[in-house]
Amino acid sequence: MKLVYKREGESAEGRPAFRFAGMPGSGRGILRESLGRSGVMPSPPQPGEQVLVRVGLLEAYKQFFDFEEAPFSVCPNPKFFYSSGSHAEGLDHLRYGIYEGLGFTMITGEPGTGKTMLLRYFIEQAGEDLKIVHILDPRMSPKELLRVVLESLEVPRFPPADLTERELAEELYELLLLAQRQTKKVVILLDEAQGLDFESLESLRLISNLETDSEKLIHIVLFGQTELEERLRERKLRQFDQRILVRCHLRSLEPEEIQPYIEHQLLVGKVDLGTEFLLQPTAKIYEISAGLPRMVNVLCERAMMSAFLQDTRKITVQHVMEGWESLNRIGILERKRL
């Protein structure tokens, strides 16, 4: 694919600086072209001279919008955390449950509402008064769970493999008492907690029993889908359920939050200031995505790609609809589901 670049002086390092200046024959057809992977500029052109280079589509897309980081990635990068009403509430619940020493906190939400993003943002913002254990996949035996917690807390010597579950719990208790003397709080954050079985939940309940006469020594936060709430209603988990005193259910973005959310992502990604989502396409994005942050991101990224193919940074309803159609073809955000 041939793209037109224009020389614009020199970079801070003294190297020639080039900027995307157009794409001959832009349109959907370029998706079917053989895309070169090399973005290396040939011999430096003269000032003001336009040159043709061969680059990959995604690199051309990035250069067209001139962003440092993809603004609508589905990876939960805490740098892109947006404090919507629901997510600010979730953050408040997290801090309250931990600093008030209430033992268990539970954050639930449908897939794509930003639970992992909230978790990672909390970790990034945590002060030195917290010792955090982040468990990505909590599906493990009680003994494995104890060993993972001890390992994450950087014990001076790793517990021997032949220690029993009770002996591991005793080692953890001593470590928690040490943290208390250092005025530090130990917090376990468990992602995908809906996957915990009865045995693991019971183990967490027993770990939460590690306390002094006056305070809890460990704080446990469960992040999970709504199935976690349903699971805890089972009769055999009544004791566990009764211990969760702080609960928050993350909601989708509200209609009035979509535009500020999109503008926030563009700003953090340092996207070209000429890039603009107009009000009508923003309303269409909410209508299609129902405000789920993950789906908003996916749809915005596809709409921007459609705009790129038409050589414009003004995202319209047409671009959103074309992006939606491309997602339909791979079974995401299908019309029949809406």
Helices, strands, pairings?
Blueprint: E1 2-10, E2 16-22, E3 50-54, H1 57-65, H2 85-99, E4 104-109, H3 115-125, E5 130-135, H4 142-152, H5 165-181, E6 185-190, H6 198-208, E7 218-224, H7 227-232, H8 238-243, E8 244-250, H9 255-268, E9 276-277, H10 279-289, H11 293-309, E10 314-315, H12 317-328
Parallel strand pairs: 4-7, 4-8, 5-6, 6-7, 9-10
Antiparallel strand pairs: 1-2, 1-3
Helix pairs in contact: 4-5, 10-12, 11-12
**What's the oligomerization state?**
single chain
CATH topology of the largest domain: Rossmann fold
CATH class of the largest domain: Alpha Beta
Round the mean pLDDT to the nearest integer and report it.
83
- Kindly provide the radius of gyration, computed on alpha-carbon positions and rounded to a whole number of angstroms: 25 Å
State which percent range the strand residues make up: 15-25%
N to C succession of SSEs = EEEHHEHEHHEHEHHEHEHHEH
What class do helices, strands and sheet pairing give? Answer: alpha/beta
Regions with little confidence, pLDDT below 50 for 5+ residues: 1-55
Q: What's the number of structural domains?
A: 3
Question: What is the terminal separation in angstroms?
Answer: 37 Å
The dominant shape is elongated
For the largest sheet, list the strands in their spatial order. Answer: 5-6-7-4-8
> Tally of extended strands?
10
Continuous helix count: 12
Please give the CATH architecture of the largest domain: 3-Layer(aba) Sandwich
> What would you give as the CATH superfamily of the largest domain?
P-loop containing nucleotide triphosphate hydrolases
Helix content: 40-55%
- How would you sum up the major sheet? 5 strands, parallel
